[in-house]
Design goal:
Layout: H1 27-44, E1 50-53, H2 54-57, H3 60-80, E2 84-85, E3 88-90, E4 94-100, H4 102-110, E5 112-113, E6 118-119, H5 120-125, H6 134-148
Antiparallel strand pairs: 1-4, 2-4, 3-4, 5-6
Helix pairs in contact: 1-3, 1-6
Length: about 160
């Protein structure tokens, strides 16, 4: 059990004991959070080509317990949707040569938090240590997913 407020991405509600007090995330919520974490890492790197591993954007326990497959699926989806480019995405939970595309930059600049002034980029850059919290990463992923789906929504 992870003590930082959320379950490993591979856990199910039946895996929890009666003392669990954190939120129960749906599979889509988990994906939104993971997408938000991947995009936040890329925002902090600017347009530099980066190597990203599942353990960079997931709790260590989740990355070990099959979460790397979820990371690969999310990274592949971001690439297919045109938000990122990648030189390679590997089955061991690594992606190299990853960077935001112009479409990815537009998405993080368009999304806002806490009113019209704070873009997703500004929100991420305000906490470069990765301390935004699972709910904020989830909102980033949800906003970007909705934006790609053609839906207008607020990330606040």
């Amino acid at each position: 059990m992870i003590s930082n407020g959320f379950l490993p991405l591979s856990a199910s509600p039946r895996d929890m004991d009666a003392t669990w007090k954190g939120p129960i995330l749906t599979a889509l919520d988990e994906s939104y959070e993971l997408i938000g974490r991947i995009l936040a890492k890329l925002v902090l790197g600017g347009l530099r080509s980066q190597e990203i591993e599942a353990r960079d954007v997931m709790p260590q326990e989740a990355a070990i317990e099959g979460g790397s497959q979820h990371f690969l699926a999310a990274t592949h989806w971001l690439r297919l949707e045109g938000l990122i480019t990648a030189g390679g995405i590997y089955s061991d939970g690594r992606a190299w040569g990853v960077q935001l595309t112009s479409k990815g930059v537009a998405a993080i600049e368009k999304g806002t938090f806490n009113g019209p002034k704070a873009s997703i980029r500004e929100t991420v850059e305000s906490k470069p240590d990765g301390s935004l919290g699972p709910d904020t990463y989830g909102k980033i992923g949800s906003f970007v997913g909705g934006l790609l789906g053609g839906f207008t929504q607020s990330a606040s």
